[in-house]
Predict the structure.
Amino acid sequence: MLQTTYTNARANFAGLCDEVTENREIVLIRRRKGSNVAMIAADELQSLVESSHLMRSPKNAERLLSALERALKGSGTVSSVESLRSEVGLEE
């Protein structure tokens, strides 16, 4: 995580935006009044918001973490997007 002052962030705003979007860095902007601000890529923020929403339900969180564990172990079956669409009735 990069850290900078408010004054420096203003002076180098375009460069900080590039760093955030191109290198996936988070920039912490320190302000004198103590209320710091973080700069994060919009798609990264969206991903965090979606993950937070999905993990809000303990039952759903358990199901997702269990699926992740199975995937990391290499167990389970591989399905194509087409077969999954067909299974849930979303054929094109």
